[in-house]
Each structure stands twice: as C-alpha cells, then as structure tokens.
Amino acid sequence: MLATPFSIVLMFTLAAADPQAQAPPQPTTQPPPATAAPSADDAAARQRAAEQKLLQDWPNLARYRDDNAKLPPPGKDEKRVVFIGDSITDGWGRRTNDFFPGRPYVNRGISGQTTPQMLVRFRADVVALDPAVVVILAGINDIAENTGPTTMGAIEDNLASMCDIATANGIRVVLSSVTPAIDFPWRRGMDPAPKVRTLNAWIKQYAASHGYTYLDYYTALADAEGGMKAGLANDGVHPTPAGYAIMAPLAEQAIAAALETPPRRR
To answer: Closest Cα to residue 173, out of 162, 186, 184?
Structure first.
C-alpha cells in the first residue's frame, strides 16, 4: 500500500516523540582499575636496595660528587663558606632556594647523617672546595643512634677530628651547638635533652680552648625543658622557616667573627 502524505508526517512525528529513537547510546561507565597495595616482597626489595646502597657508600660521597666537580674555585676576593651537617643543614633553604642568597655559602648537609659519616666525607665535601670557613653542625643524629649505639666521647672525637682536618688546611672553624630536641619522632624514648646539653657544654669549651668560633643556636631555640620553642619546629627537631630565620643571623655573626681571625695551620 502507498504511504499518504499524512502517514509519512505521522511516522516522523512518532519518531521525534520517542526519546530512544534520537538519543545516542550511552557509554557504560567502568570503575577505575584498583591499584594494588605494595606487597611485602616489594617492601623487602626496597629495604634490601637501601641497605645495599648504604653498604656501597656509607658516607654518601656520591651525593655531592657531581656538584663538587662543577663548583669553580673561589674567586680572588671570595670568602667561601661551607656548611657541613645533617638534615638541619640539608633542609636549610633547599626547597625555596634561599640559602643565604648572594653569599658564597655552600650547603653540604646530608639528612640523617652522624659525625662519623661526615668525618669520612670531610675532605671531599669541605677541604676540596677550598673554603675560608667551615660551619660544622653535627651530633643530634649520633644521640638518636642513627648509625648505631655510640658514646659522648666518640661524638667528641669525630668533631675534634673534623676541626683538626680543617685547621691543617688553613680553614677557619665555626663549631655550632646542637639544636634542641625533647624527643625524636623516628626513635621515641631516647631522652635527648640532657645529652644535647652535655654535648653543647663540651663543644663550647672545646671551641674556646682551641681558638674556634662557637655558634650558639641552642640558647635562641630552646624552651625551658630543652625542646624546641613553639613554632620553631613542626616535629620538635627540624626547624621551620621561623626557626631558620632565628638561626641565619647567628650564623652570619659567627662567620664574620671567624673571618676576623687569621687561619691557623698545624
């Protein structure tokens, strides 16, 4: 039978009224694939890799090897200063790239390190850079036993040895007090506050008896209990920007005092 004009119009009208006749097929939404949690084998593999790296380069000489090679010798009138230390030095201006801007100061801190590790890398990361002054801030991770149990005498010996190497190479020494800590978030229950005070008393006396400049961060940062004052450290150990803002002028004053003394050689 032939379709009349009326029947053709009716068919198009019915088609337009049917939503399924016009709407394109909707894609099926699939949930995102689940991310597998790290397995115990993965964690063990990472642990083995970290231990292997530590065994191969215990003082982490590789950390600054390339940077040291690229660093040109100091200019004729340049008074280069090298800061050697642990995470408190390592984190100083690292993220914001404002470690004493405009100053010829070189940051050679490595997070987590103890004094024996710094002693091993002292020639590569300090002496080889030919500084006029070295600022040594070390000892808090020894108290935390990051590289195993130790004694106050061993910490003192390592600090004294770094000073000896610096002096033998005509580098002026700034010995910094250890910064305050009431506890370690990565190793609870070590009761560091009295140990920090004991070590700082030795550092101050040793600096005075050997003609080194003593840099007292502790007094400006510590509360009555021997911890960091409120707002100066988020975890009780590592300075906030407010903490570093207190430390910076103290470091500048100590460096200026050290530069006023003639270098000594043994």
So the answer is: 162
